[in-house]
Amino acid sequence: MTTQNEFFSLSRFWNLLKYDFNSNKLHYIATLPVAMLGIATVLWIAFPGEIKMGHGYSVTSVPFKSNSYNIFLFLGAVIYGIAIVGNSFPGLKNEKKTLIHLLLPSSNLEKFLLQWGVRVFLFLVLYPILFKFTADITSEIYLAIHKYYLSSNNLKPSLFPQIEKFSFKQFIGNNPKTFTLNSSFVVAMYTLTVSIVFFGGTIFKRWNILLGPLSIMGLILIVFIYLVILSNILNPTQRGFWDINLNINAPKLFNDLIPLTMFTTLIFGILFSVVLWVATYFRFKEKEV
């Protein structure tokens, strides 16, 4: 390995990528359909309306709105994040695999970038798309089956369940002036959560499936403490220290467009994610010694 390409070589990285795919081919191929099946099954159970034996039918008058998907989106991100991102660096799970992994003809940076690209970047990009696609297909099939059942059994059309399509607009709003900020805020918090699980893969190893969620709970606690401190700074006369008396929409910065809480949380999320990636790299690099 020459000094020129000691840290990164495109051809060497490509060979490492092919090696990783061939070694984990079944896992990679099965991940998408298994994830889609899991999401579809949970949503199918959660959707209103139930076809009963003997041509019976029951339905609730409460519609399944776009924000009704949120809890399933969040739980799926946690579960699949732990299963996929939390199992980063599989070659470090035991001494034998660690030895084989470290002897591969590639630099530590290339091995890190492979795991970051496959486990973090692809997950961040593909999971929201996969959830949206699966939710839309599942709702279409569900409604089509129920519509056919109601019409074929001469049941009232009013029984037809009301199911909206899932949309990301609820997270970012419709104001074009704050669209970029809201989108960045959602992406930053999402990235930070995944980065914590990614970092946990080098610390907790096989215990990451248990300690990863605890780390996310720790993040929530940190956010809570941050809001408490910010609330006390902005409202020094409030009675209890642990009370959060905070208007998230005030004060605002940059011509009253950006709330202070959202802006500072955005900066915190971006910086902490980068710190976690760097810490993960150096944690992985320690295995070389």
UniProtKB/TrEMBL annotation:
Keywords: Membrane, Transmembrane, Transmembrane helix. The chain crosses the membrane at residues 26-47, 67-92, 112-130, 185-204, 216-237, 257-282. This is ABC-2 family transporter protein. It comes from Echinicola arenosa.
